């Protein structure tokens, strides 16, 4: 349950990052810097389509890798707190 939550949160976090980065890239590469009158806005809808229809699996796999690393981190934090509490109780 906890791992699934970590995976979901990492996937949503990096999916939103991907959408922002893709929208910024469409703005940058679709415009000419010298002609400011004809600049087009960032295409967020296209970025959303690219993220969900073309790269969702890649982002989900990246979220899985991040979730595994965070799960290991939180497991060690939990175990270190347990050991610290056990050693404080035996020292008194």
Task: Briefly characterize the structure.
By secondary structure, this protein is mostly helical. Helices cover 82% and strands 0% of the residues. Helix 1 crosses helix 2.
Mass-distribution shape: elongated
Tell me the number of helical segments per DSSP (H or I, 4 or more residues long).
3
Proportion in β-strands:
under 5%
Report the strand count. 0
Average pLDDT level: 90
Terminal CA distance: 37 Å
Q: Strand count, sense and closure of the main sheet?
A: none
The Cα radius of gyration reads 22 Å
Structural class: mainly alpha
Helix residue percentage = over 70%
What is the domain total for the residues? 1
H/E order of the elements? HHH
Q: Show unreliable segments.
A: none
How would you describe this structure to a colleague?
With 92 residues, the protein is mainly α. The protein has one domain (2-30, 40-91). Helix content is 82%, strand content 0%. Helix 1 (2-29) crosses helix 2 (44-54) and helix 1 crosses helix 3 (56-91). The protein is elongated and about 75 Å long. The two termini are 37 Å apart.
């Amino acid at each position: 349950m906890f791992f699934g939550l970590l995976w979901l949160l990492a996937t949503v976090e990096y999916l939103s990052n991907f959408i922002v980065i893709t929208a910024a890239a469409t703005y940058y590469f679709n415009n000419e810097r010298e002609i400011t009158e004809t600049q087009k806005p960032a295409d967020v809808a296209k970025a959303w389509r690219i993220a969900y229809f073309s790269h969702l699996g890649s982002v989900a796999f990246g979220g899985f890798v991040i979730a595994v690393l965070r799960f290991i981190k939180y497991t060690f934090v939990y175990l270190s707190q347990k050991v610290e509490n056990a050693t404080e109780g035996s020292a008194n």
